[in-house]
Amino acid sequence: MTVDKVHVELGADSYEIHIGDGILDGLGVNLQLIGFPRKAVVVTNATIAALYADRLLSALRRADLQVDMVQVADGEEYKSMATLMFLYDELIRLGTDRHCGLIALGGGVIGDLAGFAAASFLRGIPFIQIPTTLLAQVDSSVGGKTGINHPLGKNLIGAFHQPRHVQIDVAVLDTLPEREYCAGLAEVIKYGIIRDRDFFYWLQQNRQLLAARDHNALIYAVMKSCQIKANVVELDEKEESLRAILNYGHTYGHAVENLAGYGKYRHGEAVAIGMVVAAAMSVELGFSSQDELLEIRSLLQSFGLPVTPPELSIEECLVAMGRDKKAKQGELRFVLNRGLGDCFIVGLADPLKLLTAVMLRLTATES
């Protein structure tokens, strides 16, 4: 069985990402090789447990791991303090100590929750990521960002805590609902826009294979996305500068998620809208062309992703964006693309004027 590997070099916190087709059953052997604790707790939800828990638990027990499982509620609205406290309660009930580990089996909500629990429970225990959504495979499972949402903003409470290992089996994407799958493709497209023009055009050329969930195409797309993210994280683990470029489309996207109400838009859908807004900002400021904006918009649309900003007050959006983690001393900062394959971070002195012009441009583009 072929396994593609991406190494994330972070000194003592280095780890490997394994990517392949049907590799879930090999997890136990991998955990033995990295010296993961022999006692572990799998954190998942009922949806994922029904599909993969028995298979995973059997693979781990064959490798002589002592494993328990905790299920939390399914949905972005449960990435909350209440769910985190429930998870702590269960870990204490199971007798989890510093010589135990956590295994996150699920999408971004599970990965972020379990990762934050691992970062904070007993002041830190090891964990691994087994992402089961495309979004988690190419984004949240890599790089060590963990956390929960606050009613006033997304991911405002959290910690950096790198996983010991990431196991990505693209075969699990066969059971992913279509809307969730397409939402994940938004993050894949992001990497091409901000870092790799050739990858962007590869995505254009292979959109039919990706839409059909061809496993070979998925392995390449996931591997390429993870490699780009790993390269950025290696240079800026704690998001002090460069790593913020990975939030392309997220500043406006997070505002959409927050103001529309968590759950109305999938994260990737909100990011897709945010990327179109960011691309339009780049055109307004002269860093990109209208044709490149249309290429970005067209590729997103080809996967059924939303590209039109919802009818939200610009002033309310600016307030929500003011809570963005990239904001610095009250100044809004945006990641903008420079054409295709490059990007930069800019602080905006008058974001109201620019955002107003952007919305007019996008309205004209629609018509």
Q: Would you kindly provide a written description of the structure presented here, covering whatever features stand out?
A:
The structure is a single chain. The chain is an alpha/beta fold. It has 2 domains: 3-173, Rossmann fold, CATH 3.40.50.1970; 178-366, Dehydroquinate synthase-like - alpha domain (Dehydroquinate synthase-like, alpha domain, Up-down Bundle), CATH 1.20.1090. It is 48% helix and 19% strand. It is built from 14 helices and 11 strands. It has helices at 27-33, 46-62, 81-93, 108-120, 134-140, 178-195, 197-205, 207-211, 215-235, 250-260, 267-284, 290-302, 314-321, 351-366; strands at residues 3-8, 15-20, 39-45, 66-72, 100-106, 127-131, 145-150, 153-160, 166-169, 332-337, 343-348. The strands form 4 sheets. The protein has a 4-stranded parallel β-sheet, with helices on both faces. Strands 1-2-9 form a 3-stranded mixed β-sheet, with helices on one face. Strand 5, helix 4 (108-120) and strand 6 (127-131) form a beta-alpha-beta unit. It starts with a strand and ends with a helix. The model has no long low-confidence stretch (mean pLDDT 94).
- In percent, how much strand structure appears in the residues? 15-25%
Note the main sheet: 4 strands, parallel
Strand order of the largest sheet: 4-3-5-6
Q: Mean pLDDT, nearest integer? A: 94
Shape: globular
Separation, N- and C-terminal Cα atoms: 50 Å
What is the CATH class name of the largest domain? Answer: Mainly Alpha
What keywords describe this structure?
367 residues, alpha/beta, Rossmann fold, Dehydroquinate synthase-like, alpha domain, four-stranded parallel β-sheet, three-stranded mixed β-sheet, 14 helices, 11 strands, 19% strand, globular
